[in-house]
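seq as requested:
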Amino acid sequence: MKRYLIYTLVVLVSNLMLVSCMDSYLGIEQLDLGTDRPEKLTVDKVVPAAGGLEIYFSLPAGNPNHAQVVATYRNKMGGQMEFKVSRYSNKILVEGFTGTDEVTVDLAVVDESGNRSDVTQVKEKPLLSPVEIARQSLAASPAFGGVKLEWKNQQAHRFAIHVLTEDEIQKGVKTLIEDPSKTVYSSDSLNTATYLRQYDNIEQKFGFVLSDKWGNRTDTLIQLITPYKEDIIDFNRIEAVSYFNPTYGTTSKDYAEFGVDPLTGIQNDATTHSATFAPQTMFNGVTTANDFLARKFYMQAPGGERTYLNDVYVTFDLHQDLRLSRVQIYPRPSSSYLYSRSSVKRFRIWGTNDANAARWSKFPDDWTLIGEYVGKMPANPASITQEETDYFYSRQEYAISEDNVNPEATPTASFRYMRIQLMESYTATENFYTINEFKMFGEVIQAY
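struct tokens:
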């Protein structure tokens, strides 16, 4: 009986202790610093920013329990916007404004117990927001197969451009409907143009609206645009030709011995690694492989250092007379080729047709320089953005007329036979070039 009483007392005391602990500890213990409000902060300076205000402040002295400063305002949609910085900061950036009218921002000091000070109000005019600046610069113009959009984003802010096209919601009633698949995202200061395709060669109504991460949307740019007619050039018709003596080889060849045809004096076409990497693989419809690989010729004096010639040629019969509008280059998908190594940075397109009877014995005589093109570089090569990566691998495009950098070229000329001159790789010291696919668009005048 005595043992039973002792056991009962032990259980009772344990339960009392447990209840006592539960009353005083509920997970992470909160500091209790009282309910006194912190003193108000002092605003030292307000600097207008693009779509925001940068507010410099001083916290009340002598209170070590300050936790953070909170800034709030109501946006034009009625939503409450809130921004926070720790007590170790002396400034807070409040963003999300549109327009340049005066706005009101409330600032409060919060202590470790969650007590808030009285509000300090700031009234100031922000600068025009990034989406409004981009909207002012936004321009839409006809392009082959669609529309070209251009805008400014000098500070590399993030925003989206929403594309609206006309649709009949009921018989006889048309309205502009957003096409989410065409939304353009901008976060780069250099890549501030894009093409929207494919659209028919008829007059159409387009709308363009910009939005930012704060939910702001600009007014709509509405335009009637007639896209230029454009065909995708059928790669199945394109045939690599051997009139300029292409060869195979697993290493680069000496220019003095293999570089020039002794009968014509014309530089021979490239040495490609094997049939697997031959010029024909540039036109097989595969955009994500490790196809075409062309080696540069080298020059070397006896006992001297070997140097590589950047100019490399490949030649094709398109089996159709065409006028190019644009080309797309798909490089090797490996990260080591991203704006680097043997990926093609500069190239030319030469063209001629059947009227040139001396086309295989003379070059560049009687051939037409269609255009010369230079690949873009990322804004910061040490920190390439996802947008720049996506552009390089899947959207690397050159408009035949607009992107041509050679004033002696004739981008509007039509041609049947094409000679591509590779001139520069992203890594100048690389001794070969690589391209997965050379995709072409334009107007087919006649097929053979």
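The first strand starts at residue 42 and ends at 49.
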